[in-house]
Design goal:
3-stranded antiparallel beta sheet, 446 residues, 6-stranded mixed beta sheet, 14 helices, globular, alpha+beta, 35% helix
Length: 446
């Protein structure tokens, strides 16, 4: 599999696009996130903050980017980062340093992060607009307000702080919600690797295997492509599939049960997100088939609604109608369709939305409603997940025992493409016939 990559020019183009949206004589400040302690003196493996990385391609911690436009709109990109330090690099790995920030990451100027407070004022003073994301990091928020106060205190010397402070998310999130051709290529790679992992799980599963063992098989495929999980994987056997965010993954998988796997890899900072549900022993029971077909029909119909001319909520409305009809047909709900939908009786079995934006974050940035409070219309190159499900709790005494403990969700990653939505995760099979045939042919029998 040939995998795409981003280069320094791609990030430069993003900065230029942001600068144009910022306007003349403006400045934006964005910091990456801090390293996070796992326990003791051990950190989690570092991953740069998504929007910071989106603009810089810089993956090291302790970094701040400043994007400043002058009165002509010309952009100056300043990067504050760690200096080279031989002793620290022996322990923790190489750093780009100030020279690398300029040569490899195309910063116009680079300064040591230790000099941030001293050097940043020259770049943010006398600007008409300051773009910044308050509320992400309270400690850094305090720094920004301190800098602004320092500029206010210099007004008698002809120095002033920005005349207005504008949330950076208001333009940066909207840039991220519409994907470029290269971003879509990266997401297709994440989707293909994620799909490969789900198929591998179908091959490797066997009764009495532990959920965490199956999770390990999924992670094995991710690792073969240099990827990590884009979120905590869900591997829920039997009734555990009815727990929406089940991540303990520490129970045995039993013959006759279904297993629900919600797992995706992150490739080059872009997320895949797939859910598949299949039988541990390779054969659906009659009840499992009946519920599964309802969910699959809802998912296929919802995917068809991800197109220009429709709003974000249309797939969910479609899902709710088909799931509720199916619940009536199965005898799990009783009553008139429209009334059941209006009173949300279906929420006994389907209690979440039908999808979310997908991109660098698995629950990606971007507004779901417009300024008028209406669901926003789909635009080409948006990416959304479609993930209906039905979850019949093991202790739900309102239904016949034969249905209890069945949890099914099916999820794919969809690109808006005019009237023809593109399913990036189509490689992960999902019909009953395909799953049973594939597992009969490929699942380990030992």
């Amino acid at each position: 599999m040939k995998l795409p990559v981003l280069n320094a020019e791609d990030f430069k183009q993003r900065r230029a696009k942001l600068a144009k949206k910022m306007g003349k004589n403006s400045v934006a400040i964005i910091a990456t996130r801090a390293e996070m302690l796992r326990n003791g003196d051990a950190d989690y493996k570092y991953r740069a903050e998504s929007s910071f990385y989106y603009l810089t391609g810089f993956a090291e911690p302790e970094a701040v980017a400043v994007l400043s436009t002058d009165n002509t709109g010309k952009l100056d990109y300043i990067l504050f980062c760690r200096e080279r330090n031989r002793d620290m690099e022996i322990w923790n790995g190489y750093r780009a340093g100030l020279a690398g920030a300029v040569e490899d990451y195309h910063a116009d100027q680079a300064f040591a992060i230790t000099d941030l407070d001293q050097e940043i004022l020259q770049f943010i003073q006398n600007k008409d607009k300051l773009y910044y994301r308050f509320g992400k990091d309270h400690a850094f928020d305090h720094k920004v307000t301190t800098w602004c106060k320092a500029l206010y205190d210099q007004h008698r010397q002809g120095v002033h702080a920005a005349k207005s402070i504008i949330p950076l998310d208001s333009i940066l999130d909207e840039m991220r919600v519409i994907k470029s051709k290269k971003e879509l290529d990266l997401m297709r790679a994440a989707a293909k690797i994620s799909a490969k992992a789900h198929l591998y799980a179908m091959q490797k599963i066997r009764p009495n295997m532990m959920e965490y063992q199956l999770e390990a098989e999924i992670n094995y495929i991710f690792g073969q492509y240099g990827c990590v999980p884009s979120y905590n994987s869900i591997v829920g056997g039997g009734a555990n599939g009815c727990i929406l965010h089940y991540v303990e993954n520490n129970q045995a998988l039993k013959s006759g049960d279904l297993v629900l796997i919600d797992a995706g890899c992150e490739y080059q900072h872009y997320a895949g997100d797939i859910t598949r549900t299949f039988p541990v022993n390779g054969k659906f029971t009659a009840e499992q088939k009946a519920v599964y077909e309802v969910v699959l029909n809802a998912e296929l119909a919802a995917i068809e609604q991800v197109k220009l001319g429709n709003h974000y909520r249309k797939p969910h409305e479609t899902t709710v109608k088909i799931l509720t009809e199916g619940l009536i047909d199965l005898g799990l709900l009783k009553g008139e369709l429209n009334e059941l939908i209006e009173t949300e009786k279906y929420r006994q079995f389907f209690m979440h939305g039908t999808g979310h934006w997908l991109g660098m974050d698995v629950h990606d940035v971007g507004d779901y409603k417009n300024d008028a409070g209406e669901w926003r219309a789909y635009e080409n190159n948006m990416v959304v997940t479609i993930e209906p499900g039905l979850y019949i709790a093991p202790d739900d005494m309102t239904v016949d025992e034969k249905w209890r403990g069945i949890g099914i969700r099916i999820e794919d990653d969809i690109v808006v493409r005019g009237d023809n939505p593109e399913n990036m995760t189509v490689d992960a099979i999902k019909t009953i016939a395909d799953i049973e045939y594939f597992m009969a042919e490929h699942t380990c029998k030992s």
